[in-house]
């Protein structure tokens, strides 16, 4: 892919994104009760890449559909995504999200639970606008996505309190927690775009592998990014005692007794203190965990690209490739 | 309606209920992660009248449809209802539900939030099984129900902290919080049963008024029922400082300074102590609030019955009447 392609795709992304932002800014305008819709507005208007709606839109185009037919579904997946963010932030005791306070901190727990539930209701309303006879499959795909996200988040919380987690178990967890929604986006878009069975399958597979790469990159950024760019505290995963890919890989590779002990401390104490983050970053570096994670991210990205190899629409196949590469280079 | 009718309807109810219980008992069997599905099983198998699924089933029959076509949608509304219970119990700090601990008490907050979300996902999965081309309207009805429940619950929490609430505002709140789902049940059933527009409208109106009567009865039982029968603490609404119909009516009718002061205390202190419940029950009695509430319940019940007056199916029209009267006489 050359630079001109990248510029063109960035333009398409930007123009679709503006349309999306306009629709999103109008979503909960002047709705009552304010105590419900203000938190909904606050979270949905807090920015973010709008990656998931973009996947819906490109997937629809990639199989010959039109942007405009997929725009309601695009809003729907963004709403679904924000629903998961709000509830996950409660469960993770997160203080910040995209550089702003999380809903349960800015408002309270009740407001956050309800805003999440309502975002989900709104998601379905939008999904219903955008589809006709194919309702059933599209809605079933969407629902499966929702249930997998719940299952994944449940495993994630479960792993925090478990003494040992296998890397394979971790991969199943992020497949559900993160990749399932990427998969859902691509599948829904492809279905709305009237893709063939093979096309829907290819895009679904692309979404899943891309989602895996995305979550691994997320684990990596949590410890390696700059706090100002990430918009939340660095090392939050270690502080919460989360068994990320990096942590599990470190456990696997550690040989020196002091490294083993330091890692075991995270498990025993269910997390670390903020002051200890630098020390753990050094352990990760020393054990080559950073490179191992990057290798895994690349592996999933290549898997994703392989899936869409046979897509006929060269333009949007190239745009999906651009997207995958763009995510690889992200810093937040 | 004579006693034989009542017996026959009770038999129909019992036999449909057994089928429903069997399906419900299998809903989350052997599903993983256990940390997600065990709480889901616990709440959905904690009994209850299964009133909402029954509404779906009868509404379908009342317009000429078959029970079996509405059974998936019946499971769906019960799942949706349980989703709201789990999240509402968190927001209300409720300790008990149907005589058992609430999910956030038995497990923890995270498990309860997620179980609720997942019950909702499961609800959609079932709804999708049960419908075909009419998907869009049915799903839109269902979604509207979900959003109204969120709005109602949000108003309910908002009212707790507001100094004054009008009775009309209260009625709007319970229309959303409770009646909307009753309305949804009847509407979905009628749509699945291929009812005419007029039939769907009549059953929707029936559901709404029945739901209003149900919630008012709920407010009444909260202070007048026996604790063992109710399965939760008596007077919980007053303890939480909820502005129920009874409370707002008492405020309206109070003339003596000591009554006014006692009621104002509930507002100022955002609730009362357990030991004070008997004193407030006496105030309610003295002010005729109990009778006023019963009058309002009867008014809504009559409105509900009027709506279905023109239904052609005499048998299931009679069963809906039986149901409404049965709810009037309930003690939990």
Description of the molecule:
The structure is a homodimer of 332-residue chains. In chain A, strands 1-2 form a two-stranded antiparallel ribbon. In chain A, α1 (3-26) packs across α4, α3 (51-62) runs antiparallel to α4 (67-91) and α9 (197-224) runs antiparallel to α15 (289-307). With 332 residues, the first copy, chain A, is an all-alpha fold. In chain A, a hairpin with a 2-residue loop joins β1 and β2. The first copy, chain A, has helices at 3-26, 34-44, 51-62, 67-91, 103-106, 109-129, 135-161, 167-192, 197-224, 227-230, 236-239, 245-253, 257-268, 277-286, 289-307, 314-328; strands at 96-97, 100-101. The first copy, chain A, has a single domain (3-328), classed as Farnesyl Diphosphate Synthase (Orthogonal Bundle), CATH 1.10.600. The two termini of chain A are 24 Å apart. Chains A and B meet through α4, α6 and α7 of A and α4, α6 and α7 of B.
């Amino acid at each position: 892919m050359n630079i001109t392609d990248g510029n063109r795709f960035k333009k398409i992304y930007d123009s679709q994104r503006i349309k999306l932002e306009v629709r999103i800014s109008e979503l909960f305008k002047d709705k009552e009760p304010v105590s419900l819709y203000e938190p909904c507005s606050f979270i949905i208007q807090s920015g973010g890449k709008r990656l998931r709606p973009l996947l819906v839109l490109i997937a629809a185009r990639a199989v010959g559909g039109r942007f405009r037919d997929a725009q309601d579904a695009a809003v729907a997946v963004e709403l679904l995504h924000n629903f998961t963010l709000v509830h996950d932030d409660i469960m993770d005791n997160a203080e910040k999200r995209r550089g702003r306070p999380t809903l349960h901190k800015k408002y309270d727990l009740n407001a956050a639970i309800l805003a999440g539930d309502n975002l989900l209701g709104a998601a379905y309303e939008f999904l219903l606008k955008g589809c006709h006879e194919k309702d059933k499959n599209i809605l079933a795909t969407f629902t499966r996505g929702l249930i997998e996200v719940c299952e994944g988040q449940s495993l994630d919380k479960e792993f925090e309190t478990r003494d040992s987690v296998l890397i394979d178990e971790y991969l199943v967890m992020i497949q559900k927690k993160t990749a399932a929604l990427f998969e859902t986006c691509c599948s829904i878009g492809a279905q709305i775009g009237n893709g063939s069975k093979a096309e829907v399958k290819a895009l679904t597979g692309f979404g899943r592998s891309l989602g895996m790469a995305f979550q691994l990159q997320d684990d990596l950024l949590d410890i390696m990014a700059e706090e100002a760019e990430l918009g939340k505290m660095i090392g939050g995963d270690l502080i919460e005692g989360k068994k990320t890919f990096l942590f599990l890989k470190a456990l696997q590779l550690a040989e020196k007794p002091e490294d083993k002990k330091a890692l075991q401390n995270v498990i025993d104490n269910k997390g670390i203190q903020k002051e200890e983050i630098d020390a753990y970053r050094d352990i990760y570096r020393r054990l080559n965990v950073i490179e191992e994670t990057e290798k895994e991210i690349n592996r999933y990205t290549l898997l994703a690209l392989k899936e869409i190899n046979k897509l006929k629409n060269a333009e949007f196949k190239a745009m999906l490739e651009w997207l995958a590469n763009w995510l690889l280079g992200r810093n937040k």
